Amino acid sequence: MKRPAVFFDRDGVLNEDDSYAFDPDKIRWVEGAQQAVKAVNDAGHLAFVVTNQSGIARGFYEERHVRNLHEWMLNELAAFGAHIDAFEFCPHHPEGLVERYRILCSCRKPQPGMIRALLERYAVDIDASFLIGDKQSDLAAAQAAGIAAYLFDGSNLHTFIAPLLTDRSYPPDQSRSYRGGAGTED
């Protein structure tokens, strides 16, 4: 049976975008992030993370660091009774310093590859699913994958997502305020 899914961008949505985040000791959750993931779980939706991690291609950190951070996030979320069903990350960048990651790929947002990979692995109700992102590239990836997208305004994530979970007639609004920020992973 297909289930709705919420696709979260990571940096700038779940955690503060503090420029190439990979060290759990330096991660700061966005206000309401853990509660938002729990609300998604409680609503019976799948919870996914799709994140560009060009710091790998740039040589700032390795894939294992990203996996370790995601494991730490899972443990932190478990304390709230919440969980992420799957993490997808893109280590590529066309101008990367690490040769094996210096490619144009179909997984780096705004391309929809990470979302499509999850749609292939999980029984997802595409029409009832949506993405929360903080950059136009997040919204473009969702649109290319055929799912709704909402531009997170940097406020409390739980407050932001609650109406989206209870009233799916709420139209995607790409005009919501854009917080900006470092934009390092885009």
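^ that was protein a. below is b, sequence first then the tokens
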Amino acid sequence: MGNDTTTATWLTPTGALPDDDEVLERSLSEWILGLTGLPEGYVRPRWTPVQPPQLPQDTNWCAFGIIDISDDANPAFQNQTDDSAEMWKHEQIECMASFYGPGSQGISSQFRDGLKVSQNNAQLNVLGLSLGAYTKLTSAPELINNQWVRRYDMIIQLRRKLVRTYGIKSILSVPVSFFGD
């Protein structure tokens, strides 16, 4: 069964797919590590199938997760060739970062300030992302193992352009007959 407009069927993308799921989370983890200076393994995805052991209360670390993905309502179809067309759209990815530990306020503040540095944003662009907006830091102490742990949260909005290629064939010729005078 074909995956193009020569057959009456559903079309799925034919080209490379965007980084999603674990690949996207790894990119976000590297970004947060780079801006906070936290050691490797101390920036963790918030929701994983197998939860790693809880870090000690006196350890600084970050949990992050994607909480919302929205896209523009009007994608554009570009780069039409004889065999395909690209659908271009923009997504907004909303992430929540929670910074834990005795130095969580300082680390979250350092992360927030790092968002404002143009070289850091250039590195984010290499990942195919750009900074949209971010919220203030919110204190949200958490009771873990019957001990209060310092925690600061913030929400970051990132943007990215997605390009999906579909087998939309161009119309090269149409048999047309004219009748009458």
